[in-house]
Each structure stands twice: as structure tokens, then as C-alpha cells.
Amino acid sequence: MRGVNRDDCIELVEQRLIRFFTESKLRSAALDPSYLQLWEALERVSRGGSRSRPRLVLMAYAGLGGNAATEAASLATAFELLHTALLVHDDVIDRDLVRRGSPNVAGAYRKHALRKGMNSAEAGHIGASVALLAGDLALAGAYQLLRSLHVSDSVHRALHAVLDQAIFASVGGELLDIEFSADRTMPSIERILSTARYKTAVYTFEAPLQAAAIFAGATEEVRLALERFGHHAGIAYQITDDILGVFGDPSLTGKSTISDLREGKRTILLCHAATKPEWLLVENLVGSTGLTISDAEKIRAVLIKCGSKDFATDLALQHARAACELLDVDGIPSLLREQLSALLYKAITRVKMETSAA
Amino acid sequence: MRGVNRDDCIELVEQRLIRFFTESKLRSAALDPSYLQLWEALERVSRGGSRSRPRLVLMAYAGLGGNAATEAASLATAFELLHTALLVHDDVIDRDLVRRGSPNVAGAYRKHALRKGMNSAEAGHIGASVALLAGDLALAGAYQLLRSLHVSDSVHRALHAVLDQAIFASVGGELLDIEFSADRTMPSIERILSTARYKTAVYTFEAPLQAAAIFAGATEEVRLALERFGHHAGIAYQITDDILGVFGDPSLTGKSTISDLREGKRTILLCHAATKPEWLLVENLVGSTGLTISDAEKIRAVLIKCGSKDFATDLALQHARAACELLDVDGIPSLLREQLSALLYKAITRVKMETSAA
């Protein structure tokens, strides 16, 4: 795959997704027309994603000298379907009805039920129930894509273990997230970081990189180095995301800078601030459903004044630096090192580019 | 495994389940103590089941001459975990909080949240969210058990396809069930039967039997015959279940004979009755939340008078007979034929033994 245009490879992922959904739609249509509709809804949700996990798989696989482009695309697509499954179930847990500007599975089925004359609570439950099923289908799809690979038994076992660990960690992270939301006390910074790692970093960075290393036949040392890079990169990325969720420029990030504060989301920023005396000034505002734009401004001022923004920014940089140092291993070609470092640098420096002057 | 005591084999399934949960609890405890609690809750839910799917796997595998008892137990356990996953997610969809007399995952976490001072709606949502995650874990567990088998690549692919098809069909059946509940019109008898097949029969009968055949190295003819037996047996079983859900003796079945009627569950009984003039007498009672014991008596009388009970009983017998005839294939030893027929006969004749005189 070296020398092959990476855009061609991501195109192979799109094709593999189309093939997976086409086959599934044919199977479902044979069962019942309404099942076909569910598959169409799931396919719509999977459209328009950034494909960042498949891209990472392909970058690492090609960078390690792998050249089975079509098979690599199938492996990469397994991670995209895992992402879809986790997104769809996460939306049920967060009671979100919209994803990327359109109704998600729950939102679409809720609308449909409302149109049939059901009340809002019943329609919401139908939407959530169907989304639960859709997530199960996407999860089974990830296993199916992995099983479609033409690899040796031992490689399949190793890839399966990576997928299994990604699901295990993501579910654990999601559970901790739910526990935080049910708890009034602020978790420790360590707990916030490990939750972010489990919920997102493992399946977004560590697992795709490990899978690419296994599929490329890399040494155990390389696989481990990439896993550790993924670990620190994932944490750096999550912290950056949290900073942008409060200080970002919505016109650049596409994300509200109020909803995290309104929800009282347990981020590194709030966790750090909660240990400072200034926190008392805004404690009651954070997590209040009636939070206004000027309340948010007040909280931001406190987060800057008590050093929480700087603390989080530094911490993200530290993890990014640690991540890049871990790539300094025989067997990881310098081109791949540069690509991964550049990817991470770009992700981290979003803070500078995408924050409004504060 | 021929000659091996079948009780010993089901004991191997219990041991395999204990091993799976022990390993998972160790993994989860390393992540966070609260994750361990979730695994403990999932293990509690899996306790005390009838293990009917593992039993079917073991019966068919031993009957076809298979003798790798420990491995067969792992395969059988995969189907038990699939069952757990589907149960836990089904409970979320049905908003059930109790399973086998104890709080299920959703019920236990709801209680816990209420004790923390949350209101009922929020606590219910937390319970449902955690149960969603628990079901995902059990689903991943089924794949993990299957992957733990020491089988050739092609056997693993074939078993994986059976598991995949079981999930695909169950989710489709569950979706149709949700659609029925959202619809005021009565579905056709064919649609009721195929929904029952997809939702329950495939993963309860067809898939375990097919998996056993594949694992035992049986011919394609045998695999197909067992699949078809499972198809008809599953439908016969489901119809029997529906009859017992209305006419059974709760002290023998352990099931209420009112909740199906109160819920207005789309069964073959109601579907048949809805085409008869007597239906108008009870149409408004079926599915009413305030349904009384005497209302239920009135509905039962109508179901008997318009021949719905007889129709359903006959249909179950027809499918049972068709199922047993399909076993008449070279390669299915007569002992296995007898065992499977006896199993089915016992399931079907529950109607006679477990109905109150009506």
C-alpha cells in the first residue's frame, strides 16, 4: 500500500461500508420491509463521519509496509462499525435525538411514532428501543467485518482480542460516565482521565493502531509502542476536545460551548477548578439547566483565572509529547512517526486555532 | 461424549460460565470497582436459567457422535451468553425491572439511583442505560466464547455465521414486536408466526442445532435437517408458550395469565380471534391497562368459543409433527431423533399438563 494514494484507500473503506450495508439490506428485506427501514436508518447514521478510525488503521498499516489494501479496508471498516455502534448506544444513554444535524435512529423512530399519534413518552421509548437494536446490529457488523478477513487463525484471534478489548474498555468508560452523572461529588483528575481513556481513547487510537500492527505483521515491540502512543494521544485528544467544548469557536468546531457547562460534564477543566477557592463563585451555575450565555462567560473567566485552562492545555501537551517519544522504536519507519506526530500535533493545536480570543 | 452423562456436560457449561465471569470480573476490577459491580449484576442475571440452549447444543453434538466435551461446553456457553444479551436488552425494551423474581440489571441500578435521591424518571433512565451496556457485554461475550474454541478456520467461520444469523434474526423479530406494539391493527397470522420465529426460534432452536452439527462435523444434509427441525419446533414451542400465557396454570408455568392480555400482546390466539364476530365483545378489553381477572375470564371464554384455542393447539401440533418428520434423514442417529422428538413432545404437551381446566 506504500505509494498508494491514501485517498484511494479511504475510498475502499467507503466501498466496503456500502457493500456491508447493501448485503445487510438485502438480508433484512427478505425478513420484513420494516427491517429494511431500520438498516436504512443505520446506514444514514454512518454517513458523513470523519472516518478517523479507519484512516488511522490505514495510515499505520501502510506505514508499516502493509500492501493488502482491500483487506486493510475491511479491517478499517470494522472499526468504523464499532464507532457507529458505540455512537448509537451513546445517543440512547445521552437521550440525544440528533447527530450531525439530522435525526439519529432514536430521533427518526420517535418522529415516526409521534406521527402515528403516540404520546411523547411512548414515542421516545420506541425511538430508544429501536436505537438499542440498531447499535446491536452495528456491533455484530464489526465482528462480521473482522471475520471476513482472509487471515490466519492466529492473526484473527489477535485481532479479535483487540476488538474485544476495545468494546470492554468503551463500555467501562461509558459506565463511569453514567456514574459521574449520577453523583454530585467531583471525581478526581485521575478518574476523569482514565474514564476518557476507556470511553474514547482505547477504541479511537489504541485499538486501531494495534490492529494495524498485527495485520501488518509488526513485532510485539512495535505493537506495544503504537498502543502506548495511542494511549497518550487519546488522552491528549480528549483533553483538547474538552477545552474546545468550553473555549472553542463554535463556527470552527461545530460544537456548542455551552452544553458541556449546562450539563455539568465532568471534564479536566471543571475537576481542576473545583479544587480552587474561585470555584465557589460558579459552583451553582455549572450543571444548571437554565445556564445563560453570561453565566457561561462567568465560568470561563473563573476557569482562566484559577489556571484550569492552562493546566488542561499543559496536560494535553505533556501527553502529546510523551506519545511522540514512544514512537522512537526500531521497526516504526520515520515516515510513519512523522505522520502520526503530525496528526497528533494537528489535533492538539486545534486549541489555538479554534478558540475564540479569551 | 457418547455415554457421557449429560448432567456432567451441563455442569461443564456452568463451569465455563463461572470461568467467563471470573475472568471478566478480574478484567473489570482492574478498570474500576464500579465496573466490577456491573459484571456482578450481569452474572446474577445469568444465574438460574434453564440452560435450554446449551442443553440443545450438547444433546445434538453428543447425539451426532461428538466427544470433545469441554469444547462443546464452550460452544454451548456462547449460546447462553447470547440468550443473556437478548434477555437483558429485551427487558430494556419491555421496561421490565424483574427477572426470575429478582431485580434485573435495570431494576438493580434503578433502585441504587433512587437510593441516591434521584427521581423516578432519572433513576429509570440510569437503570435502562446500564442494562443496555450489560447487554453489549454479554453479546461480546458470546463472540469471545466462540473465538475461544480450538477449531479450524473454516469451522470457526461457519459457527460465526450461525451466531451472526441468530443475532440478525433476533433483532429483526424484536423490531417487528416493537412495530406491532405501536400499531393498532392486528397483524396477520403469518406475520405473527414469522416474528415468533425470528425473535425466538432462530436463536433458541435453529442456531444451537446448526452449531452443534457444524462442530460435530456433520454433513450438510444433517445440518439442514436439524435447522428445519429447529424452525418448526421453535414455532410449535412459541405457540404453546402463547397458549400457556393465557390458559396456563400460573402455579405450574410460573407465569401470569393476565399480563399478555393486559398488554394486548399480538399472539396467534388474539390474531385468530380478531377475524371472528365474537371478537367485538372483548376487543376493547384486550390491551387495556385496567384489565381485571373477570375481564380475562371473558376473553378466555371468547377465545375458546370462537375456536382460537383449538386453532392454536392444532397449529402447534402440526408444526411439531412436521419438525419430527424432518429428522428422518440418514446421518441423524435414531437415538438423537428420539431425544429431539421427546424434547419437543414434552414442550408441546405442556399445554395439557399446565392448563387449568377450562
TrEMBL record, chains A, B:
| InterPro entries for this protein | Isoprenoid_synthase_dom_sf, Polyprenyl_synt, Polyprenyl_synt_CS
- Which interval of the chain is the signal sequence? none
Query: Which keywords belong to this entry?
Result: Magnesium, Metal-binding, Transferase
Q: Name one GO biological process term.
A: isoprenoid biosynthetic process
Q: State any single GO MF term.
A: prenyltransferase activity
Q: Which cofactor does it need?
A: Mg(2+)
Say which family it is in: Belongs to the FPP/GGPP synthase family.
Instruction: Give the protein name, as stated in the record.
Output: Polyprenyl synthetase family protein
Organism of derivation: Glutamicibacter mishrai
